[in-house]
C-alpha cells in the first residue's frame, strides 16, 4: 500500500494548488532555492504518476523473450536493441528510427530466449529452444551464423557470458544432464569444467545463471539458481560449490548480482524477492526479503550503475526499486500480458539511459526512468 | 506524648504563655526551654510566634533562641507528625490552616519582627530545606506506620508542601524532597504510593506550583512518572496545568522540562491518550495562521519543540491512525510559515514539516528542504530521534536512496484475472491449447455457469458444443469443488437447451471411449436437469416438503450436505403443525411441468441399448455399477415425468423390459431365503403382474423396483447378474 493513499493525495493536492501560486507570486520574499523546496514538497506529497513508455516497439509478431542493448558506441554508431522472440527471430532494432534493421532467423523458428553481444555490436550470441547457442557475424551487413554450440538442454535456462580477456569469453550454460552446468570457453568452445551438484543434493535443473568475477583477472565465480529454489555459488576453476542458500520455495526464475556490494537478488514464481549477500568467507546469507503484490518474477536486472533495479512480473508489470535498500520506486503498468524480460541500456551518457521490457503481448516498451540520477 | 484533649491544650497553652512572659528570675535557665522543646510542638510554635509578635511590647528575651532551637532540634517534623496523627482522627481544619500559615510564613514573620536581625536559620534558603527534611522525616514515619498496618493521613503535609510551593519556594523544598524521593521510590511501591498521595492531596489552588516544581526538578521522565503516578488523569487541575498551561500558554520552560513532561505523558497507556490530545492541540496551534502571526518567535519555537518531542514518542499504530490529521496540520502549518518573511519562521516550518513527514511516512517519500543547518535546527532534529525507550525511530534517510523519488504506486494492486464475458470466449479458453493460462482457465470454469444462465439465447447457439466440452473437461489445476462446478454448468446447459443437449448426452452414454465416470456424469446431469425442469422455478423458495422429491442419489460429495438438509427438514416437518398444508400442495400441483415436453428425449435413448452388450461397455456384465445408476436414473426420470403424456408410452413400451431385468438381477443377487422372508408379498405381486400384465400391476411394479433399487446395495445386486439368467426367468414366468 502506498503510504500516501488516495484520500490523502487529493487533500494535499488541493492544499498544494492553493499554496503554489501564492508562493510564486511572492518572489521577493522567496529565494530561488525555495522553488526546488516546493518542488520536492510537491513530489513528496503528490507522488507523480508513473511515466508512460518513451516509445513502444511493435512488429515482432510473437512474444518477446529476451532483450539486449548495444548503445555504448560513440556518435556515428546507431544505438541498437536486440530482441529474441518466440517465433525464433532475432530482431535488431534501430533506436533512432524505432524500426527493425535486420531480422535474424537462426533457430529453426524455435523460441529465442537469450541474446547478447560479444565485444561489439557485430558479434552476437543467441540461445534458442532448438537447443543451440549460435554465434553470429553481423559485420558489414552480414547475417551469418559463424559457429554454434549444441547444448542438448531442454529447459529455459539462459546462458551467461563473461569476458575474461580480449577476445576470450567464458560461457556458463545448462548441460544435457538435468542438474549439470557446463562452462565453455569461447570462441574456442573448449569445455572448462562441468559443475555437478553433490549426489543427493536434489537441486533440480539450473534455472538461471550469472557468471562474474570480482575484478579482471580474478577467479570467475558462478551463481546458479535452481529448480528447488536455492542459489548456489560455484567456484568455476575448482568446479566446486562454495555455498548454497535456499532463497525460495519455488524454482528461481531469475537472479542478478552486484559484485561491488557483494549482494544479489533473486525472484521466483512466488510473491517475494529475495536479497542475499556474500560474506568474506564466501558464504551466501539472506539479507532481506521483499513482498510483492503479485506472484511471479520472470526477470531481474540491476542497472549497471547499481542504483536501481527492474523486475519483469507475471502480473504484466515492471517494477523499479532502489538497489541500496530495495525501496520501491515505481510500478510500470503498460503491458497486457506477462513481462518476460527487462534490460537496461549501456549508453555512455547516463541521461540517455533506457530501460526496455519485452512481453508476451508481443510488444517491447522502452522507458526513460531515473535517467537523471 | 499522648495527644492532648482540648482542655489540656488550653491549660498547657496558658502555662507556656505565662512562662514566656515570666521575668527571667521566675524561670530557671535550661528548664523553661525544655518545656518548650518537649511540649506539644504545635502549641509551642503558636506560643513562641505570639511571644515574638506581641506588638509594641518588649520582646521576650530568649524566645528567638528557643525558636531557633526548636527548628534545629527537628521539632517541625514532630509538629507535622502530630497534626497528621490528629488528622487521622479528624482534626480541626481551622487550626490546621493557622498552623500551615505559621509554618510557611515563619521566615517572613521572624524577619519582620527582628527587623532583619534574624539568625541565619530563619533565612528562607535555610529554613525551607530544613522544612523539607522535616517533611521527609514525617513521610518516613508515615511509611513506617503504613507498613505497620496503621492508617495515616498525609494531607497536612501536602498542604504544607503546596503552600510552600505557591510561596515560590519550590526550589528550596523540592531540592531536598525530589532527590530523596527519587531514591526511595526506585523500587518501593509503598513509597511510590505515598509520593503520589502527597501530590494528589495538594489543594487545587496550589497544585500548579507543585506540579511545575516536580516537572522542573525531576531528573527524567521515568522519575517523574514514578513520583506523580497518574496524577494528570485523576486531577483535573493537574491535567490542565500539564496539558494546557505548560505547553500552550507558557513557553519559558526549558527543553528538558518539555521532555520530562511529554515523556511522562507517554509512559502510561492512560496518559498516552492525553499525549495524543496534546499533540493535536499543539499541531492546531502550530498550523493556525493567526498564531503564527501573533505569537512570539520563542513560543513558536517552544511549540515546535513540543511537537517534535511528541512525535518522538508516537508509536507506529498511533501514527497510522493519526496520519491524516498530522498531514493536514503539517500542510497548513508549513504553508503559513513559508509565507512568512522571517527566515527563522520559514526554517522552523521546514524543519518541523520534514520531521513530521519523516515520522509519518517511514517507507514512502520523505520531505526534504534545503536550508542551512544551525544549532537550532540541529537541536530540533535531535528531539525527534532521541527516545531510547522506543527503538522504532526511523533512521535518517541515506543520501543514496533519497535522490530517487518514488512515483505513485497506489495503483499497484493484486491482479484480478478477468473471466470472459461471452460464452464463445469461454469455449475458446476451454478448448485453447495454451496451457499456461491456468488462471484464466480457472476463472472461466468458475464463471461459465452464470454466463450460461444469463444468456440462454447465446447458449442455445453453441449448446451441444458446450456440452461436449464440459463432458470432456478435465481438471487442469486444483479448483475447489471442480466436479460440482462442472456438473452445475452441464446442468445449466442442459436445462437451457434440453432437446439437442439431451440427445447428445444420451447418445454419448452408449458410445465408445468414455470412462465410467463420464457415463455416470451423464446420468447425474440428466437427473439433475430433469429435476430442475420439472420443478417449478420458485421451488427453492417455497416450503414444499422433501418427501415430494425423489431421493436422488448422486455420487458427489454433496450427498452429505443434502443429507443434513433432509434431516433438518424432516425434523422441522415433524415438529411443525402446518395449518395450511393443503394450500401448499395445491400451489405446487398447479405449476406446469417443463419436463413434460422433453422427457422423451431424456428417457428413451437411455434404455435403447442397455440390454445389448456393446463392444466396450457391457451394462449387464462388468459395468454393473453404471447399470445401477441407470436404473436409478430411469426411476427418477419417470417420477419427474409425473402427469406427462409420454409417461404412458414409457410404461407401455419399455418399462416392462427394463424392469424385468432389474427384478431379475435382484432376484439373482439377493440370497433366496432373504427374498422369501422379506419380500414375499412383493414377489407375489410381481408374479401376478408378469402373468396378468394389468395396468395397476405395471405401476406398482415400477415403484416396487425403484424402492428395491434404492434400498438394496446396487453393487452387490449386480455382481452376479447375467443376462442369461434374466432371460430364463422371463421365459419361465411366461
Automatic annotation (TrEMBL), chain A:
Keyword Transferase in record: no
Pfam families the record matches: WD40
Keyword Repeat found: yes
Keywords associated with the record: Repeat, WD repeat
InterPro entries linked: WD40/YVTN_repeat-like_dom_sf, WD40_repeat_dom_sf, WD40_rpt
Transmembrane spans: none
Domain of life, per lineage: Eukaryota
WD repeats: 245-286, 332-373
Protein name: G protein subunit beta 1 like
Gene: GNB1L
Automatic annotation (TrEMBL), chain B:
Any single Gene Ontology cellular-component annotation: cytosol
Keywords, in A-Z order: Cytoplasm, Membrane, Transmembrane, Transmembrane helix
Residue ranges crossing the lipid bilayer per the database entry: 626-646, 700-726
Domain Telomere length regulation protein conserved: 420-530
Keyword Cell division attached: no
Main location: cytoplasm
InterPro entries, A to Z: TEL2_C_sf, TEL2_Regulation, TELO2_ARM, Telomere_length_regulation_dom
Residues in TELO2 ARM repeat domain copies: 271-367
GO molecular function: Hsp90 protein binding; telomeric DNA binding
Location(s) in or outside the cell: Cytoplasm
Keyword Repeat in annotation: no
Any single GO BP term: 'de novo' cotranslational protein folding
Family: Belongs to the TEL2 family.
Protein name listed in UniProt: Telomere length regulation protein TEL2 homolog
Gene expressing this chain: TELO2
Amino acid at each position: 500500500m502506498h503510504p500516501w493513499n488516495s484520500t490523502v493525495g487529493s487533500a494535499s493536492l488541493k492544499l498544494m494548488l492553493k499554496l503554489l501560486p501564492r508562493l510564486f507570486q511572492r518572489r521577493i520574499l522567496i529565494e530561488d532555492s525555495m522553488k526546488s523546496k516546493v518542488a520536492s514538497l510537491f513530489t513528496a506529497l503528490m507522488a507523480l504518476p508513473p511515466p508512460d513508455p518513451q516509445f513502444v516497439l511493435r512488429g515482432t509478431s510473437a512474444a518477446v523473450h529476451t532483450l539486449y542493448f548495444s548503445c555504448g558506441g560513440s556518435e556515428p554508431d546507431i544505438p541498437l536493441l536486440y530482441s529474441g522472440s518466440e517465433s525464433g527471430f532475432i530482431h535488431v532494432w534501430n533506436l533512432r528510427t524505432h524500426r527493425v534493421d535486420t531480422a535474424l532467423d537462426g533457430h529453426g523458428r524455435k523460441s529465442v530466449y537469450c541474446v547478447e553481444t560479444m565485444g561489439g555490436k557485430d558479434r552476437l550470441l543467441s540461445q534458442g529452444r532448438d537447443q543451440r547457442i549460435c554465434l553470429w557475424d553481423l559485420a558489414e551487413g552480414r547475417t551469418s551464423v559463424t559457429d554454434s554450440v549444441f547444448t542438448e538442454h531442454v529447459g529455459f535456462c539462459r546462458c551467461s557470458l563473461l569476458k575474461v580477456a580480449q577476445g576470450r569469453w567464458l560461457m556458463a550454460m545448462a548441460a544435457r544432464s538435468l542438474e549439470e552446468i557446463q562452462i565453455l570457453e569461447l570462441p574456442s568452445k573448449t569445455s572448462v569444467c562441468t559443475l555437478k551438484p553433490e549426489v543427493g543434493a536434489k537441486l533440480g535443473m539450473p534455472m538461471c545463471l550469472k557468471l562474474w568475477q570480482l575484478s579482471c583477472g580474478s577467479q570467475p565465480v558462478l551463481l546458479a539458481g535452481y529448480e528447488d529454489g536455492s542459489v548456489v555459488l560455484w567456484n568455476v576453476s575448482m568446479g566446486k560449490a562454495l555455498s548454497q542458500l535456499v532463497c525460495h520455495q519455488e524454482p528461481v526464475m531469475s537472479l542478478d548480482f552486484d559484485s561491488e556490494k557483494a549482494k544479489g537478488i533473486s525472484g521466483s514464481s512466488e510473491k517475494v524477492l529475495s536479497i542475499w549477500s556474500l560474506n568474506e568467507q564466501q558464504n551466501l546469507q539472506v539479507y532481506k526479503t521483499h513482498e510483492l503484490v503479485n506472484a511471479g518474477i520472470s526477470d531481474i536486472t540491476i542497472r549497471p550503475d547499481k542504483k536501481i533495479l527492474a523486475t519483469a512480473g507475471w502480473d504484466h508489470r515492471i517494477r523499479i526499486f532502489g538497489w541500496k535498500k530495495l525501496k520501491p520506486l515505481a510500478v510500470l503498468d503498460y503491458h497486457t500480458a506477462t513481462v518476460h524480460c527487462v534490460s537496461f541500456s549501456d549508453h555512455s551518457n547516463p541521461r540517455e539511459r533506457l530501460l526496455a521490457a519485452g512481453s508476451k503481448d508481443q510488444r517491447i516498451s522502452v522507458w526513460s526512468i531515473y535517467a537523471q540520477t | 506524648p499522648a495527644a492532648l484533649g482540648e482542655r489540656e491544650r488550653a491549660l498547657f497553652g496558658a502555662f507556656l504563655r505565662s512562662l514566656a512572659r515570666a521575668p527571667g528570675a521566675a524561670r530557671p535557665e535550661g528548664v523553661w526551654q525544655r518545656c518548650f522543646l518537649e511540649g506539644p510542638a504545635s502549641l509551642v510554635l503558636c506560643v513562641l510566634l505570639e511571644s515574638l509578635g506581641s506588638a509594641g511590647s518588649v520582646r521576650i528575651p530568649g524566645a528567638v533562641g528557643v525558636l531557633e532551637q526548636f527548628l534545629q532540634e527537628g521539632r517541625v517534623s514532630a509538629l507535622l507528625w502530630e497534626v497528621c496523627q490528629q488528622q487521622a482522627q479528624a482534626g480541626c481544619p481551622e487550626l490546621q490552616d493557622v498552623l500551615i500559615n505559621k509554618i510557611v510564613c515563619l521566615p517572613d514573620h521572624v524577619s519582620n519582627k527582628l527587623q532583619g536581625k534574624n539568625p541565619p536559620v530563619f533565612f528562607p534558603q535555610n529554613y525551607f530545606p530544613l522544612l523539607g527534611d522535616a517533611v521527609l522525616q514525617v513521610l518516613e514515619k508515615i511509611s513506617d506506620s503504613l507498613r505497620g498496618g496503621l492508617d495515616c493521613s498525609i494531607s497536612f503535609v501536602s498542604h504544607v508542601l503546596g503552600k510552600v510551593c505557591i510561596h515560590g519556594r519550590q526550589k528550596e523544598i523540592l531540592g531536598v524532597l525530589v532527590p530523596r524521593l527519587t531514591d526511595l521510590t526506585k523500587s518501593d511501591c509503598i513509597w511510590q504510593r505515598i509520593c503520589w498521595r502527597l501530590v494528589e492531596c495538594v489543594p487545587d489552588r496550589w497544585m500548579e506550583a507543585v506540579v511545575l516544581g516536580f516537572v522542573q526538578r525531576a531528573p527524567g521522565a521515568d522519575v517523574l512518572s514514578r513520583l506523580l503516578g497518574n496524577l494528570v488523569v485523576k486531577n483535573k487541575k493537574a491535567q490542565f496545568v500539564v496539558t494546557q498551561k505548560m505547553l500552550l500558554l507558557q513557553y519559558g520552560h526549558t527543553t528538558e522540562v518539555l521532555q520530562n513532561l511529554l515523556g511522562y505523558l507517554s509512559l502510561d497507556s492512560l496518559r498516552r491518550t492525553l499525549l495524543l490530545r496534546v499533540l493535536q492541540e499543539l499541531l492546531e496551534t502550530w498550523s493556525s495562521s493567526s498564531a503564527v502571526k501573533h505569537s512570539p518567535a520563542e513560543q513558536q519555537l517552544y511549540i515546535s519543540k513540543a511537537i517534535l518531542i511528541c512525535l518522538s514518542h508516537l508509536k507506529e499504530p498511533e501514527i497510522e491512525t493519526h496520519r491524516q490529521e498530522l498531514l493536514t496540520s503539517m500542510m497548513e502549518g508549513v504553508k503559513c510559515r513559508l509565507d512568512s518573511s522571517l527566515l527563522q519562521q520559514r526554517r522552523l516550518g521546514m524543519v518541523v514539516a520534514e520531521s513530521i513527514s519523516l515520522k509519518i511516512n517511514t517507507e514512502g517519500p520523505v520531505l526534504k528542504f534545503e536550508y542551512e543547518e544551525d544549532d537550532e535546527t540541529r537541536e530540533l532534529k535531535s528531539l525527534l530521534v532521541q527516545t531510547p525507550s522506543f527503538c522504532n525511530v526511523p533512521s535518517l534517510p541515506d543520501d543514496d536512496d533519497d535522490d530517487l523519488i518514488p512515483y505513485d504506486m497506489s495503483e499497484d494492486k493484486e491482479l484480478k484475472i478477468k473471466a470472459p464475458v461471452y460464452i464463445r470466449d469461454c469455449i475458446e479458453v476451454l478448448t485453447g491449447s495454451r496451457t499456461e493460462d491456468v488462471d484464466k482457465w480457472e476463472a472461466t470454469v468458475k464463471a461459465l455457469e452464470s454466463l450460461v444462465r444469463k444468456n440462454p439465447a447465446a447458449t442455445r447457439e453453441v449448446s451441444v458444443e458446450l456440452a461436449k466440452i464440459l463432458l470432456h473437461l478435465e481438471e487442469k489445476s486444483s479448483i475447489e469443488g471442480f466436479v460440482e462446478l462442472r456438473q452445475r454448468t452441464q446442468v445449466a446447459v442442459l436445462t437451457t437447451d434440453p432437446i439437442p443437449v439431451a440427445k447428445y448426452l444420451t447418445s454419448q452414454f452408449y458410445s465408445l471411449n468414455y470412462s465410467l465416470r463420464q457415463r455416470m456424469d451423464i446420468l447425474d446431469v440428466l437427473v439433475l436437469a430433469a429435476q430442475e425442469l420439472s420443478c417449478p422455478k420458485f421451488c427453492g423458495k417455497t416450503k414444499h416438503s422433501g418427501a415430494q422429491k425423489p431421493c436422488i442419489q448422486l455420487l458427489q460429495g454433496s450427498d452429505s450436505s443434502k443429507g443434513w438438509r433432509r434431516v433438518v427438514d424432516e425434523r422441522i416437518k415433524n415438529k411443525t403443525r402446518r395449518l395450511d398444508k393443503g394450500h401448499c400442495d395445491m400451489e405446487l400441483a398447479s405449476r406446469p411441468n417443463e419436463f413434460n415436453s422433453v422427457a422423451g428425449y431424456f428417457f428413451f435413448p437411455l434404455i435403447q441399448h442397455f440390454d445389448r452388450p456393446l463392444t466396450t461397455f457391457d451394462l449387464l456384465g462388468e459395468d454393473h455399477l453404471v447399470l445401477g445408476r441407470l436404473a436409478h436414473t430411469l426411476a427418477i426420470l419417470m417420477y419427474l415425468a409425473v402427469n406427462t403424456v409420454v409417461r404412458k408410452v414409457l410404461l407401455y413400451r419399455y418399462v416392462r423390459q427394463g424392469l424385468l431385468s432389474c427384478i431379475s438381477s435382484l432376484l439373482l443377487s439377493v440370497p433366496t431365503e432373504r427374498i422369501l422372508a422379506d419380500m414375499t408379498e412383493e414377489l407375489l405381486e410381481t408374479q401376478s403382474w408378469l402373468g396378468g400384465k394389468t395396468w395397476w400391476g405395471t405401476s406398482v411394479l415400477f415403484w416396487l423396483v425403484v424402492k428395491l433399487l434404492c434400498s438394496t446395495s446396487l453393487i452387490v445386486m449386480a455382481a452376479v447378474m447375467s443376462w442369461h439368467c434374466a432371460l430364463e426367468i422371463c421365459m419361465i414366468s411366461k
